[in-house]
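Example 676.
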Amino acid sequence: MEKIREEIKEIVRQALASKEVDLILAWEKGQLWYDSYPAFFTEEQGVDSLVWDQFCVNNLSKYLLDDGMAGQKVGILVKGCDTLAFNQLVQDNRIIRDNVVLYGLPCSGMIDPAKVRREGLDRGLIKIKKTGDQLIFVNKEQQIKVLPTQVYYDKCLTCHYPNPVIYDRLIGEKVANETLATHAGRFSAVEELEELSTKDRFAYWDQQFSKCIRCLACRNICPACSCEQCTFDDSELEILGKAKENSEDKFFHLIRAYHVAGRCVDCGECSRVCPQGIPLEKLNRKLIKDINELYGEYQAGLDPSIKGPLVTYQLEDTDTFTAGERGRKQK
Amino acid sequence: MKKIAKDRLSLLWPRIALNYQLFLPIAEEKVVNFSRWEEGAEVDLATLKTANSPKDIIFPQTETYLNFKQEGKRLELEMAGGRKDYLVFGVSPCDVASINLLDKVFLDEPVDQFYQEGRQKGVIIARACLNPAETCFCSSFKINPALAPAGADIATWDLGDSLLWEAQSEKGKELTADFDDLLEEVSREEQERLEQVKTGIADQLKDLPLVNLDPDLIEGGLNEIFASEIWEHLYRRCLGCAMCTYVCPTCHCYDLKDYDGNKCGERFRCWDSCMFSDFTMMAHGNPRTTQKERVRQRFMHKLVYYPNNYQAYACVGCGRCTEKCPVSLDMVKVIKKLGGERNEL
Ligand code: SF4
Ligand code: SF4
Ligand code: SF4
Ligand code: SF4
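Predicted structure in complex with iron/sulfur cluster:
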């Protein structure tokens, strides 16, 4: 990654110097090993602090909605999952494709600092090296070999688009899909929940949602949550305010899940940022799975020219409200 | 000083729970938070940082003030309140210090009666931090992780097979007497081990990456910091969520609202966050219209306004915002940008 990092910096410097773009969205390194965060580069000289490492997990596409971006030509560094989000924003008419230059970065997975801490690998950590398919955690006393599956984000372990699906310029070599754990495990947790009785499933989600502190980080990081005025910010809304109430916690999550249904690109950012570890991906993937089963395989954000199944109507669609039993699928 | 053998803790919990609502750090699917203890709960006294601070036990995220009911022309009002006795066990030194900071706000005139009642009904048992984490910087705020600040009723230290136990207040002494049958005297050897543990903590502190942070070095007064250019650069990546303020043990802003059920309803308060676009919304609109102003408000409050009012910073260096902010816009970066870092490595 170090080699590619230098290449990225050079490309970013040139793009800014030649005024190909006014601004580039990338990442910068903070005080601690895991701390790679979104950064905005406008000056060639500032680019030294740009970073590309195994902690550049933040999806930067949503910053394209910021007021400050209007009328600017913006460059953005994007991984595979980030490009799905980008495409979804284009499809939702929230950004204009031609105003953006995409620098695509193949990605073999990002490291979850929480997992590193849980494995006790953070103590005295100096650096993390990557050799072949192993990671080496170097601290003062020793070098510890670790398999990526032990420390990668869950979402990276089920990633099926490690390479950007859209880009203007690709930096680095594409990674082979097989280097990642596959697609297969994606719906297994959903299937487990489907096995439960309605009562137990309700109890499961009731318990999960009750942990929510309603910080809205999941909404704010979500590329599918791109409404100019979100209903949750409406202080007159009577069904939902800021009270930490069980019923409101449920309303919040169900409303959000249905608002992103069909547009959720499964980028996993909502689950990543949740401070309470609520498995939001299970909720979103349930909706994705149902859509796949009802309307055929669909991946939001893969191709913005294809309209999503929930915003189109075809005569042969299963209309579950009449054909099924009150919304339930026919067996 | 006393001690309690670790294998007796399972006897202690039900005893406490007889008379108190007992809150302990409890692990649930890898996330540790202070929750109500019940038989079989996975108590975790080893994890250093709970995801949330115990703030919500003392200052609940939502709290009813008043119930109202209309019958004909009569309007009936009924004060809520009436908190039960509770005990929080395993509070880290920084979190204890944060309660003292909340006290200054809520117990200052005019006294907040709900908060006051909550404080009077509560017992705080602290736990020293044996392994401060790399995201910790409590020492920047003159908190010693090896000790429990005043405000804790009992201090404890983990010696592996037992917890050393020392009462620090009247409440703490009474409680120590109540559990006398579960506690034992401490031997000379154990006293010495405690001293070693404390030295060990002090040694570890020296190696922590954020140890050079010193808010006293922040340059400029209120107006200069307010007008500083750093905000323009810092705010841009902020998502405007409330995670930093809700996990922070010292943030204490709240909103007052009604549930209006036509003929009956409830007035309640709930946490609010300066990061939200509708924070302090008034008839004319919002005084802070951009995220830049909101981010500035959060840090100005902690580093300038609060200190001006109460002669202390409203941050205890718990490092939760450092660890949790999805875009790493945390207290450490702001203090550094404002010049609050010693360069004597
Ligand atoms: S709901 Fe979650 S997984 Fe889906 S697009 Fe939004 S952040 Fe990504
Ligand atoms: S990020 Fe987690 S805690 Fe915050 S609102 Fe979303 S689900 Fe709730
Ligand atoms: S500073 Fe971080 S946690 Fe706080 S509102 Fe901004 S993005 Fe959310
Ligand atoms: S500002 Fe951050 S470090 Fe300081 S007390 Fe709040 S959460 Fe902890």
